Amino acid sequence: xxxxxxxxxxxxxxxxxxxxxxxxxxxxxxxxxxxxxxxxxxxxxxxxxxxxxxxxxxxxxxxxxxxxxxxxxxxxxxxxxxxxxxxxxxxxxxxxxxxxxxxxxxxxxxxxxxxxxxxxxxxxxxxxxxxxxxxxxxxxxxxxxxxxxxxxxxxxxxxxxxxxxxxxxxxxxxxxxxxxxxxxxxxxxxxxxxxxxxxxxxxxxxxxxxxxxxxxxxxxxxxxxxxxxxxxxxxxxxxxxxxxxxxxxxxxxxxxxxxxxxxxxxxxxxxxxxxxxxxxxxxxxxxxxxxxxxxxxxxxxxxxxxxxxxxxxxxxxxxxx
Length: 321
Fold this sequence. Notes:
Elements: H1 2-21, E1 26-30, H2 37-46, H3 49-53, E2 57-61, H4 68-76, E3 83-88, H5 90-99, H6 108-111, E4 112-121, E5 123-128, H7 136-144, E6 152-154, H8 160-172, E7 178-180, H9 184-193, E8 198-202, H10 207-211, E9 215-220, E10 247-254, H11 259-274, H12 276-285, E11 289-293, H13 295-316
Parallel strand pairs: 1-2, 1-3, 6-7, 6-8
Antiparallel strand pairs: 3-10, 4-10, 4-11, 5-8, 5-9
Helix pairs in contact: 5-13
């Protein structure tokens, strides 16, 4: 099976190269590292778009600064229906609110066209087995017994995971210094090895280890339990009122992209997300929920999220370096 896949990839390479040279190729900008959750979600969807659209669709990786390089590229792209971006909600929301001008050159509501929300998923906290704790309350008590608190890993600074950690520290009245990583995979590696005692993230990289007994996911930052992992309680259930709804992944186009092009892509995305094989991949392997929202609903979600997080970020006093 592996040999056949390698051979197929080798045979496809010249065709892909020709497609990339063709001006009709659609590129989907992706700004987060390979191997992480957003990368896997994007590829699960993008790989199936050529069959739906009848033209080549390729990922254009612009990895760096929390996805901002990809968003910058989208800002400068022509609104011709050939450029899109797939990103988690954290990229436009937190890059705009935390870093702002002059580092962030765009306004997500003004400069980008919302195409569709694609998936939603809970964010949660896991602890190393070296900690010996099994619940949120045990974790907080354990942290309070340590003069310097307990370090919490997050995949980067200035994102949703980071500010959830700050909210948790404030709500629980305990020091939780943040240890940033360049993505989720190295953070999970350190969590498994006991080099960082706790971590906050999308759970695709942690849940398999939780179920295998190699680490412990102690809570979700959602209003209610997720159907993807109904055995894991929320923080609210455990008496800690830190909730942020679900995180989500979506597609944007450059501002002023023709409505007909956006509509065409929306129909293709709906068909891809309805495929049983895609739904199974997303829910059982990537631990995200297929959740299609059209442009208007996605724009409303974006506005509500900006309004929710802006005062929290300002109150935190966090200043990007």
